Amino acid sequence: MYYSTSTALQYLFLSLLLHPSIELQPNVLLIVVDDLRPALGVYGDKNAYTPNIDKLAQKSFVFTNAFAQQALCAPSRNSFLTSRRPDSLHLYDFYSYWRDTVGNFTTLPQHFKENGYFTYSIGKVFHPGISSNFTDDAKYSWSKTPFHPSTEKYKEAKVCPTKKGLARNLLCPVVVENQPGGTLPDLESLNAALDFLKYRTNITDLPYFLAVGFHKPHVPLRFPISYLDYHPLDNIKLPKNCYRPPMLPTVAWNPWTDVRHRDDIAALNISFPFGTMPDSTTQKIIQNYNAATTYIDDLIGQLLQKVDDNTITILIGDHGWSMGEHGEFSKFSNFDIATRVPFIIHIPRLSYSEIISNELVELVDLFPTLVDLTQISGSLEICSKSGTNSKLCTEGRSLVPLMISSLHKKKSKGKNAVFTQYPRPGAYPTIKPNSDKPKLNEIKIMGYSIRTSRYRYTEWVNFNHTSFLPNWTNAVAKELYDHLIDPNENLNLIGRPEMKYVTDLLRKELILGWRYA
Ligand SMILES: *[C@@H]1O[C@H](CO)[C@@H](O)[C@H](O)[C@H]1NC(C)=O
Ligand SMILES: *[C@@H]1O[C@H](CO)[C@@H](O)[C@H](O)[C@H]1NC(C)=O
Ligand SMILES: *[C@@H]1O[C@H](CO)[C@@H](O)[C@H](O)[C@H]1NC(C)=O
Ligand SMILES: *[C@@H]1O[C@H](CO)[C@@H](O)[C@H](O)[C@H]1NC(C)=O
Ligand SMILES: *[C@@H]1O[C@H](CO)[C@@H](O)[C@H](O)[C@H]1NC(C)=O
Ligand SMILES: *[C@@H]1O[C@H](CO)[C@@H](O)[C@H](O)[C@H]1NC(C)=O
Questions:
Q1: Where would one find the signal peptide in this protein (predicted)?
Q2: Which residues contact residue 307 at a Cβ distance below 8 angstroms, ignoring those fewer than 6 apart?
Q3: DSSP states of 123-158
Q4: Is 199 in the pocket of ligand 3 (CB under 6 A)?
Q5: Sorting pLDDT into bands at 50, 70 and 90, what band is 23?
Q6: Domain coordinates of the chain in residue numbers?
Q7: What is the Å distance from ligand 1's center to 384 Cα?
Q8: What single-letter DSSP state applies at residue 238?
Q9: Residues that are catalytic
Q10: Which residues contact 208 (CB under 8 A, 6 or more apart)?
């Protein structure tokens, strides 16, 4: 369960590798791709075309079982940027800022800034708005005012060309020159990143921590139309589980509200909450999501060409996205499809080939891992349980010991389990309050989920949004999936007598929580 005492020696090895001389303190490039599930060639997705990310992966550590802590942008991002879980930040929606509500916690970029790095944010890194105090937490986290693309303001505008004029569509392939501003947000972000890499020595001699957040493939799927060429419709495979699982409790269903109100989907008049998407539209959604991902892959390729070989590069998604699996088109759930993310770490001067780790890891692990890789400070301590929260601690675990043992092809034991959660305003899907995105004061139920290498167990329990405490008596609903026979989580095994022993065990581990996993 815990790492061996040879860890110190392993760190020494790593330190020599990363710091052949004092001047070569490595730079850090953190690439965050919005709503990107592992729809990537390197993760074996047959609908994907992502040559640049695949190439990066060929010289990186690739974590195949990495999970976000909540399948919603602001909670997930604040979580991995502070290495604290949604329950510790009291953030399950978009509407609070941790420094004002829970504690003056140090962020990942802030820690680098306070330890001799120049830190800069481009695009969507923190979720904009209240949850980062309308500034991407700039005063604390960044050395320079964060960059936001000017054309991001058109993200919900009527800009998608159709036969009947411009529309507010989900599916939105475009000719870039005809778009407002003659560009797209992610193209602007790429240029800002390239400018920074080119001219940074004009403004600083320090090593950098550069975070670049790409907006696509988040909906609406607006991307240059040419990327459709890589994704002929005939080649698109529909998921095998394009239906609502028969044993799925209603509280677990997320009615994909931010897809249905778009002009092209609204025109289909799909009944709320359980109406089904036509297969032909599902196919187009898969096509457009993958084309938008190829577009981002292309931009990442252009960015990586300009990154020098003294840079630790990390690529993550903030959470997944269902493209028809379970009959859903969204995040907003505890399923693997909504919580599993790509997680790739490239370390300079390690001329290894691709190293795959199937261990369970979490996005909260990113912060302690980067601290250990760069050794900008001592390793982070685990946050105390008492509530006297220290400013700098982690609710994750450094992946460096796992990485070193995978490097030596040794077996290593990571976490026994990982955790995610998702709130609901009630047990039956509603538009108002929005079951997909309830506001804090609307939350009545929390779905707590534990994922082991074999099982996913989820318990939907009453939740007090004032005390932030779950009530584990009289659960609203429960789900159990056995990945050995059901990797897509279609068959809820709860209530089967032969599963009682396993259920009880998982329930106990779920209530104990991440500290004991
Ligand atoms: C929060 O922490 C930062 C440094 O980590 C410090 O500069 C600031 O004064 C603190 N704010 C409060 C209100 O304690
Ligand atoms: C958040 O922003 C407001 C308005 O700019 C500012 O007054 C406040 O100090 C900020 N909060 C923190 C914790 O820095
Ligand atoms: C950076 O410095 C170089 C050389 O001093 C100068 O030519 C260039 O214009 C500067 N670029 C920016 C963006 O400041
Ligand atoms: C949409 O569907 C409902 C029933 O599901 C039906 O009553 C209504 O007429 C339909 N509207 C259109 C525009 O097709
Ligand atoms: C929720 O917790 C608050 C604060 O501890 C308490 O005052 C309130 O009665 C609780 N609400 C319910 C419904 O139990
Ligand atoms: C938890 O739920 C049980 C049963 O519904 C109830 O009796 C108990 O008062 C609740 N506990 C709290 C702290 O609200």
A1: 1-23
A2: 27, 29, 197, 313
A3: ESSSPSSGGGTTTTTHHHH-SSPPB--GGGGGTTSS
A4: yes
A5: low
A6: 6-380
A7: 20
A8: P
A9: 73, 127
A10: 27, 28, 117, 118, 119, 120, 196, 200
Question: Which of 298, 406, 303 lies closest to 354, judged by CA?
Answer: 406
User: Is the separation of the CB atoms in 120 and 196 below 8 Å?
Assistant: yes
* Tokens coding 361: 């890891």
CB 437 within 8 A of CB 458: no
Q: Is 271 in the pocket of ligand 4 (CB under 6 A)?
A: yes
Mutate to test the pocket of ligand 2, among 104, 105, 130, 133 (most ligand atoms within 8 A of CB): 133
Q: What is the pLDDT of residues 320-344, one digit of tens each?
A: 999 999 999 999 999 999 999 999 9
DSSP string, 163-186: TTEEE--SEEEE-GGGSGGGS-HH
User: If you average pLDDT over every residue of the chain, what do you get?
Assistant: 94
Indicate the length of the chain as a whole number: 517
What is the 8-class DSSP label of residue 473?
A: S
When pLDDT is averaged across residues 259-277 and rounded to a whole number, the result is 98
User: For the domain bounded by 6-380, which CATH number is listed?
Assistant: 3.40.720.10
CB 213 within 8 A of CB 189: yes
pTM metric for this prediction: 0.96
Q: Report the alpha-carbon distance of residue 64 to residue 239 in Å, rounded.
A: 19
- Give distance in angstroms: CA of 473 to centre of ligand 6: 7
Tokens at residue 10, please?
């392993």
- Tell me how far apart the alpha carbons of residues 460 and 482 are, in angstroms, rounded to a whole number: 18
Phi/psi-derived region of residue 269, left when phi > 0, alpha when psi is between -120 and 50, beta in every other case = left
To test the pocket of ligand 4, the residue of 260, 263, 265, 269 to mutate (highest count of ligand atoms within 8 Å of its CB) is 269
CA 462 to chain centre: 26
Ligand 2 and 139: CB distance under 6 A: yes
Q: For ligand 1, what atom is nearest to the CA of residue 110?
A: 5
